[in-house]
Amino acid sequence: MIQATGRTNRAASRSGSYIDRPMEQLPTTEALRGRVLAALRRCGVGIKLDESGDIAARTPITGGEIGRLVGHDAADVDDAVHRAAVAFAVWRTTPAPFRGELIRRLADTLRAHQDDLAEIVSIEAGKIRSEGLGEVQEMINVCDFASGLSRQLDGRTIASEHRGHRLMETWHPLGPCAVITPFDLPVAVWSWNTALAVICGDPVIWKPSERTPISALTCDALFAKVANEMGVPADLCQVILGGRNVGQVLVDHPGIPLVSATGSTAMGRIVAPRVAARFGRSILELGGNNAAIVTPSADLNRALPGIVSSATGTAGQRCTSLRRLIVHRSILDEMVSRLVTAYRSLSVGDPLQPGTLVGPLIDRGAYDAMVNALTAARTEGGDVIIGGDRVDNERPDGFYVHPTIVVVPSQTPVVAAETLAPILYVMPYDTFEEAIAIHNGVAQGLASSIYTTDMREAERFMSSAGSDCGIANVNLSPGRAEIGGAFGGEKETGGGREWGSDAWKAYMRRATNTINYSDE
Ligand code: NAD
Q1: Is the pTM of this model over 0.90?
Q2: Is 213 near ligand 1, meaning CB less than 6 Å away?
């Protein structure tokens, strides 16, 4: 019985076994490097993974280095902004449907190389194969959406208060956009921004995560191939490799009217005021701390798969990963027991092997953050029900962990932080109002969901007195988001919106036009 405090009878629900993949069967770093080079060859992309660069491209599968690449500096950023300005002069007057055709062809190229790009993403970010393929599929979907949208960049005509006047809004390209992206979605976030920016008439300068440079260079090369075939400006999309220093040069550059920054809230806290100080615009897609409420009427059979996969997929390192499960006290025991059974069937290990569901953490820093969070959770009265340990302590640089469930008594401090690891905090609630208060009681506001078959609870959750997140789902995991709807979050998640609905407006400037066609 799980007690009112949240503490559990450990004998009833002690750590169980997972289906660990044999660590001695992990591919070697050299073999992974070979697979990356082969995928690059199939893409027709000539990226040199030589030994002279200052950026190390690593794979979390072994922790080893698969190549070295040359990073950029402040002068390179300046040069890229200059080139983007030249490309902009041509691109802003190119008809939008033609711009959409470029993105349509990019989608076709991604379709043709979905396997190859997914392989590189899986090796560089440690995603299981289906997640790598899914990420590239998301890119294709965004491109399809944007290509159709290129024929619908419409403005409004508004009733004028004057006779013989027409009042209307027109939308115009903004200029070179900086796109800063995180490691957990090494290629998708670029496509969310680039597909829209390009159809809107804006060149893109991409500063990818320093942890996934090969994935970025591959996308850039595929884009360049399509751009070249269509004879469009070569510098429509450029990549700047490096860490936060070079990112900051881009952020501060007066030639960049829009900075779309996706990553941690800590990064956004630095980037946002710097862009604002020069009156630039920013789209901020920052950290999440996503929750799901499970009410007594929930269909647990249907809820369980979504809860487990969103809490453990990508080893809990996605912005939309489920981190907090708020469960009605009357079903807490049953929910935890079903979760434990499901967690025991998770296979952890080589993400490239078919059947694996949980791959490695990105690096030692991620592992340390997980250990620290679990130590804090225990100190605050949390009870680790299952998981929490490393699969193979002997392996120095590959960090494979067992997904973890911690029952916490209430809204304890540790649950307020986003820890990029597969930790699911389970919290009991008694009243619906309490569930909403717990749900909204964190600083982040990205994704959320409720599992219920009670229509009134579902509606209240989605109402203005319900979830305060940018995404509020019913009977789906928080991470489920379709391209057609705008994606993004509130509060410390930054308020930005990308991809669907009218998110394109952020990549354009609006002009209000009044025309006097009267004789007066
Ligand atoms: P991170 O903040 O460490 O890095 C993200 C990017 O920002 C990297 O390219 C990094 O080099 C750059 N950067 C860092 N400091 C900078 C600075 N001062 N100036 C300019 N650039 C700077 O994030 P991460 O660890 O790579 O990614 C994980 C984080 O991203 C999580 O918090 C996750 O929730 C978040 N994320 C959010 C979304 C979303 O849509 N809201 C999507 C994906 C990831």
Answers
A1: yes
A2: no
- 262 Cβ closer than 6 Å to some ligand 1 atom: yes
Spatial separation of the C-alpha atoms in residues 353 and 357, rounded to whole Å: 9
Residues labelled catalytic:
285, 319
Structure tokens at 35: 């697979």
Top mutation candidate among 267, 278, 318, 444 for ligand 1, by most atoms within 8 Å of CB? 267
Ligand 1 atom closest to the CA of 211, numbered from 1: 26
Give mean pLDDT in consecutive 10-residue pieces for the chain, a chain of 520 residues.
42 58 92 98 92 91 96 98 98 98 98 98 98 98 98 97 98 98 98 98 98 98 97 95 97 98 98 98 98 98 97 98 98 98 96 96 97 97 96 87 94 94 98 98 98 98 98 96 96 96 98 96
Contact at 8 Å (CB) between 99 and 148? no
Cα 190 from Cα 206, distance rounded (Å) = 7
- Which residue type is seen at 170? T
The rounded Å distance from CA 266 to ligand 1 centre is: 8
What b/e string do you get for 36-63 counting C-beta neighbours within 10 Å, with b at 16 or more?
bbebbeebebebebeeebebebbbbbbb
- C-alpha span between 398 and 59 (Å, rounded): 9
Q: Which atom of ligand 1 is nearest to the CA of 265?
A: 32
What type of residue is 55? I
Instruction: Give the whole-angstrom CA distance, residue 445 versus residue 438.
Output: 13
Question: Which tokens go with 33?
Answer: 């490097």
Compute the distance between CA of residue 209 and CA of residue 195 in angstroms, rounded to an integer. 19
Q: Which atom of ligand 1 is nearest to the CA of 285?
A: 41
Question: Ligand 1 pocket test: which of 121, 135, 180, 282 has the largest number of ligand atoms within 8 Å of its C-beta?
Answer: 180
State if residue 319 touches ligand 1 by the CB under 6 angstroms criterion.
yes
